[in-house]
Design brief:
- Two copies of one chain form a homodimer.
- The first copy, chain A, is α/β, with parallel strands linked by helices.
- The first copy, chain A, is built from 18 helices and 28 strands.
- In chain A, β26 (463-473) and β27 (477-486) form a beta hairpin.
- The termini of chain A are far apart.
- At the A-B interface, β1, α1, β10, α9 and β20 of A face β1, α1, β10, α9 and β17 of B.
């Protein structure tokens, strides 16, 4: 009995081919580095991707070659994603927010052979050029007949111009490479806070499966009726896969370019009819500030997808109650392509009171089909999914890393990937990150969640941001120290904040001390750098007289 | 650079494992052959599937074994789907509406080693038992302590009872087989009107990919908030994949068992809060008749998925205007798992007037991502996607058949599968079946679409069903003959019908003759059997004096 289905590999380039054939008129709109708005269709994009593939071939870029990019979210970056993947090459998105020497290290480690970059980064590229001996071509994402851009040629000998490169090539169609679906198509290094950065390699297969799962109604729910604004950068885990999932469904894509301030994003939402926007909480703070201060409203935006770090209940509440925008909380990592879980309600939650609903919504969500989750105790036992038991969060699935670039093992011997997070999972599958395993505070043998304390503090109207770190304590081993940034023009005392927290967390969780700072340190992707705070407050030693510790019983 | 993602095979059993872990309380409700309503959860289902897998193992059913079923839609049938797939075995759904000798031929051809059947089919099984030497076990889907069922044991020596089999086994968890994702998991024979039936073999991979694609917002849009009623049988292309896609999203499943009449279906919709129902037009005719005649309404039903044969605009209009139920027209075949295209609107269609919208809705829809479509002229050239050009519809994709059971080649040498349909595709990707290639009428060198003529006729309030076949004509080679069934209590003359059609189709398409019949012949899956009509009207010969032919210019 040898009947079987067609054995066709899943290929990234087929997403754009599908969009071109079925949604040729759907638009891709980009705010460019040049300052203007660029607008074209999926049919146009595919045409240019074919040209680009020919140009890359002419430059000797083929299967397995690594194509580096230093670029904002925009149509040219999208073209690089697809032309590379179609050739069997790997689009390696570099994070321009890292330090120049980090970028150079990563590009060299990855073995990038060609580097495409936005005009913004001419100075950066000039400064690291000498450290990139394997890069054979430097290509500016613009045209040589743009006077400003042409100046860059003086800085970088042999500089090529993207528009010039593809102008002479044939578009319309291309005979794409055939290869196994496990062929790599993307590469993104994690901005680890310790050790060397590690490269996560995405395959054609993992990218397609992730796109299917992330577009489902209970995931981001993407359809041809959506206009998506990926604010999350294309250099940061492929903008959460939207450059793949939107062509899959034929929806409109809107790229913000370098303008990530509240005003620019708001204008783009309104002028392009954005229905769904995706980004980290910091971005939404800026957008909400802008909208709130000018008493504006959203005419088309229906949902924001929020990830990268936890959403505060206050933000969820403001989006929903003031602007009628549903916040979809998602969880993932560079190692999970990135989306692993999305927080969408079940019918049983319809009866919840708003406060309960917001509390549920602040959880990280349910696993997509294809990604399996479990939590494990320190002893390596499976912890129950009861919403109470905490454990290390382990994941596996076809879009989870097995091995980092350079053959560095990522998954454990038993096949699971340890996320480094401490989480609970409830009986309905809702996962909640309690802490990073390295940030959790062990006080008297019990865990205190720094994240829950921070969220409770950030619910206070005067607090802009809060961080909690553990500091040594003679009796309890560790106790929490809270570090806060106040909103401009606000005042708050330690005692007022402790009173606020007292109603929201267990008494023995109350921070033993609170310090008010002007700002907290953040990494290149906007993540809070607790390691820096730990260094800065290394002198902090609690005494055994602390009132709060005594409350514990 | 050897970084890569986890290499995990896509497995059908993981759908149910996912549902058990993330949606343990979501329900599966079945109307049983026993007459009552059975109700349990995904957690219960998984438990029983583990028991069943152990029971099958004990009976010697393992990898590659073929497990035959003769069963209605219900929870036990679902359990057989999953336990077989989990073991690397193949669930072979037999169509009980075929003639006994056809069923015997198919079960023998497939090499079924065990046969599970509902009590309904005891007589059938008894009658074909002798023709199934390879079937080692006959298992009745019930318990031996049910008196009515126990009687069956007298008819079939060695009969086993499903509930007895699994009762003694351990549930909870099972160590599922590991195998390549191309491992077969399902088998369904096409009820071809000519030649021997052909077996389409579904794999774990094709089934999972089809489930992802068919659950997308622009496909069936399935979510945890849905309650799905697959009226389309599980023995007919796996009930369009709903037994897989619903566990994927954790939605509630409602199985109608053998009761497919309008009253039973309506009661199930209302009592279980069905939001989406899927079936062939004939089923909806019965449901609409029931609801219309009693002036009822639907309290939870939001959409019906309709396929198998074309939906009439009249039915689409009644569902939408009278009952506020959206009709989602889908297209597929046994060879395409089955869903290939789904008709969901784009934003550009929002401005359409109702009549135009219904006309668009009657088209077969846009290709899902993963399934590629093209149309080809008789000369083998690609026809343009302009909504006008007609051609043979070709498809390919990972859930399209390559080779039928028994190594019978299905796809062409160039990798495309010829559907046997004649279609148009417009610039937005909407495909419209114009005719079966064998039903199209070639009149004076031009094509007349029998389907379009039939749809136009069925839009008449007095017509219940219409069929058009081509009959020889001395001058035009072929001309259309229309065969109609009137609604009970209605009267209509040929001339009245021609007047109606004259406003809806090209003048030269008007049938040269109309015959009113008591009923039209249908096959086992409800499809109109035009071959029978052609036999019955073999005597029909048009004369050259026909007025209509003269109208042609």
């Amino acid at each position: 009995m040898s009947g079987h289905m067609m054995r066709m590999p899943l290929r990234v380039i087929d997403l754009l081919r599908h969009a071109k054939r079925n949604h040729p008129r759907a638009e891709i709109v980009s705010r460019r580095v040049e300052g203007d708005i660029h607008r074209y269709t999926y049919a146009d994009a595919y045409d240019r991707v074919c040209r680009l593939a020919r140009a890359l071939g002419r430059l000797g870029i083929g299967r397995d070659a690594h194509v580096g990019t230093l670029a904002w979210n925009g149509y040219r970056h999208l073209e690089l994603y697809y032309a590379s993947a179609g050739l069997g090459a790997v689009c390696h998105t570099l994070n321009p927010r890292l330090l120049p020497q980090q970028i150079a290290w990563i590009a060299a480690h990855a073995g990038d052979e060609i580097l495409f970059f936005d005009a913004t980064f001419v100075g950066l590229v000039k400064s690291i050029r000498a450290q990139l001996p394997r890069v054979r071509h430097f290509v500016l994402l613009g045209a040589s007949d743009n006077a400003e851009m042409a100046d860059a040629a003086d800085d970088i000998p042999g500089l090529l111009f993207y528009e010039d490169l593809i102008a002479g090539e044939l578009g319309d169609e291309f005979d794409w490479a055939s290869f196994d679906e496990n062929q790599a198509c993307g590469l993104c290094y994690t901005s680890g806070t310790t050790g060397d950065p590690k490269g996560v390699v995405y395959s054609n297969r993992s990218t397609i499966l992730h796109a299917y799962a992330s577009a489902l109604p209970d995931s981001l729910g993407l359809s041809v009726r959506d206009t998506a604004l990926p604010v999350v950068p294309m250099f940061h885990v492929n903008a959460w896969g939207l450059p793949y999932s939107m062509p899959m469904v034929g929806g409109k894509l809107v790229f913000p370019g370098p303008a990530l301030d509240g005003k620019s994003l708001y204008e783009l939402c309104e002028s392009e009819g954005v229905t769904v926007a995706a980004g980290v909480p910091t971005i939404w703070l800026g957008l909400l500030d802008h909208v709130r201060s000018r008493a504006l409203s959203f005419s088309s935006l229906r949902r924001t997808v929020l990830g990268g770090s936890a959403a505060s209940e206050a933000m969820i509440r403001e989006f929903e109650e003031v602007y009628a925008v549903r916040v979809i909380h998602a969880w993932g990592m560079t190692e999970t392509s990135p989306i692993g879980a999305v927080n969408q309600f079940k019918p049983v939650h319809d009866a919840l009171a708003p406060a309960e609903r917001y509390r549920l919504q602040a959880r990280q969500g349910r696993a997509l089909f294809g990604l399996e989750m479990r939590i494990e105790t320190d002893e390596g036992e499976a912890a129950p999914h009861d919403g109470e038991a905490r454990g290390r969060l382990l994941v596996k699935g076809p879009w989870v890393v097995d091995t980092y670039a350079g053959s560095v093992r990522a998954a454990r011997g038993d096949g699971w990937f340890d996320t480094g997070d401490i989480a609970t999972i409830d009986a309905d599958g809702y996962m909640s990150i309690v802490d990073r395993s390295k940030d959790v505070i062990k006080s008297g043998g019990e865990w205190i969640s720094s994240i829950e304390l921070e969220n409770a503090a950030m619910g206070h109207p005067s607090i802009q941001e809060a961080a909690v770190i553990g500091r040594p304590h003679p009796r309890w081993v560790e106790r929490p120290l809270m570090l806060c940034v106040l909103r401009p023009g606000h005042a708050l005392t330690c005692e007022q904040l402790r009173d606020w927290l007292r109603e929201r967390v267990a008494r023995w969780w109350l921070p033993d001390a609170v310090e008010f700072l002007d700002e907290l340190p953040h990494g290149a992707t906007g993540k809070l750098l607790k390691a820096r705070l730990r260094e800065r407050f290394a002198h902090y030693q609690f005494q055994d007289t602390t009132q709060n510790s005594e409350d514990r019983s």
